[in-house]
Amino acid sequence: MNAGQTCTAPNHIFVPQEAQEALSDAFVKIYKDFYPDGAENAAISILVNNAAFNRSKQLLEKTRGEVVCGGQFDEKRRWIAPTVLKNVELNDAVLEDELSGPILPIVPVKDMQEAIDFTRSQPHPLSLYVFTDDRAFEEHVFSQNQSGQFVRNDCCVQFTIQDVPFGGIGESGDGMLMGKCTFDTLSHFRPTASSPRLADTLLGWRFPP
């Protein structure tokens, strides 16, 4: 969506090492389904300006990850194909900051606790997505991390639900939007107090001697 230039776009995927190849193969299959005539001929958003294009292009040049699908670019159009990477390490350039582009790194981990620990060591994300049918695992991930939103088995749908507050925590944002939450966030509740003169008699213990 919008070449990854949305605040709720997934920034990377953690996957157990033993499942990385199966996930990569699935991306290749779906990529061909999405773009049977090639991504170059598909209706894919361009990058918003030259700075955004150059930043994404430089990240693709600097990463030590391997391209699973995508990777093509057209500088004149500021266009980069949706690109999936695999074998991305935790210290890779593409994990140093929010991507805000059409790049999706697959990060293999020895176990999901390693993924949880890494996420906890970073600024709180705006959105955290978990793909599982194991409710106990879902609850474990939820309880071990803080994020603006938490979604199971989908991405980017949370801001379309009008009755659900949308917002971040820490560096990912402050306050909540949608409906009355927007009003409350943009309103200042101003406490006021008025003390009657009789209070000095009742609370005389406040004064010396």
Automatic annotation (TrEMBL):
What residue ranges are annotated as transmembrane?
none
The terms under GO molecular function for this entry are: aldehyde dehydrogenase (NAD+) activity
Cellular component aspect of the GO annotation: cytoplasm
InterPro entries xrefs: Ald_DH/histidinol_DH, Ald_DH_C, Ald_DH_N, Aldehyde_DH_dom, Aldehyde_DH_NAD(P)
- The Aldehyde dehydrogenase domain is annotated at 2-184
Q: What Pfam family is a match, any one? A: Aldedh
> Biological process (GO) annotations?
aldehyde metabolic process
Q: Does the keyword NAD apply?
A: no
Any idea which UniProt keywords this protein has? Answer: Oxidoreductase
Keyword Oxidoreductase listed: yes
The record's similarity note reads: Belongs to the aldehyde dehydrogenase family.
Q: What is this protein called?
A: Aldehyde dehydrogenase domain-containing protein
